[in-house]
Amino acid sequence: MLDIDAIYKDYAKIVFKFLISLCNDVNTAEELTQETFYRAIKSAKRYDGTCKVSTWLCQIAKHVWYQEIDHRKRKETSSLDDKIAADELNLEEKLCRAEEKMHLIKAVHILDETAKEVVLLRITGAFSFKEIGEVFNKNENWARVTFYRAKQKIMKGRLE
Fold first, then answer.
1. What is the spatial distance between Cα 10 and Cα 59, in angstroms, rounded to a whole number?
2. 3-state secondary structure the chain
3. Angstrom distance (rounded) from CA 124 to CA 5
4. Where do the domains of the chain lie?
5. What is the pLDDT along the chain (160 residues), one digit of tens a residue?
6. RNA polymerase sigma-70 region domain location, by residue (predicted)?
7. Phi and psi of 2, rounded to 5°?
8. How far apart, in Å, are the Cα atoms of 59 and each of 51, 62, 123, 126?
């Protein structure tokens, strides 16, 4: 039977250095070292002594590293698939918005000139109602009412 505590004390640095040489990352090497010894404990009964303990542990470490690489590849592929799906949704959403904007612009252009200008200043120019009133030499309340009435015409489809 193997004394895992003694093996850990004797070989942890060797396994760690071996993993550093594979992954070039201290944090990953530390995690994989722990995983290596966990798996060594699980498979200690199968160790038959035909090779050195360090060789056996480094073989386990190598397999742990390969599994980590596979995990990362699957994660990247999954992330890429998620990104592609999100991009497709974003594209669909953008197309819907573009279509909605086109309907809105068409509806706005049917309005009388004053209402059209108030709506366009408000939705495209980001003017405040006070600024719109100043443009027309009217007050803020006039701009609000004009915008509200134009919006109601657009929403109800009763364009005059």
1. 16
2. CCCHHHHHHHHHHHHHHHHHHHHCCHHHHHHHHHHHHHHHHHCHHHCCCCCCHHHHHHHHHHHHHHHHHHHHHHHHHHHHHHHHHHHHHHHHHHHHHHHHHHHHHHHHHHCCHHHHHHHHHHHCCCCCHHHHHHHCCCCHHHHHHHHHHHHHHHHHCCCC
3. 71
4. 4-82, 111-156
5. 567 788 889 989 999 998 988 888 899 999 999 999 999 988 888 888 888 888 889 889 999 999 998 888 887 776 666 676 666 667 667 777 777 777 777 888 788 888 888 888 887 777 888 988 888 899 999 999 998 988 888 877 644 4
6. 7-74
7. -85, 140
8. 11, 5, 66, 66
- Give whole-number Cα distances, 20 to 12, 24, 27, in Å: 12, 5, 9
Structure tokens at 1: 């039977």
Task: Compute the chain's Rg from CA coordinates.
Answer: 35
Fold of 4-82: Rna Polymerase Sigma Factor; Chain: A (1.10.1740)
Distance of CA 145 to the CA centre of its chain: 43
**Angstrom distance (rounded) from CA 118 to CA 132:** 7
Enter the tokens of residue 148: 């509200």
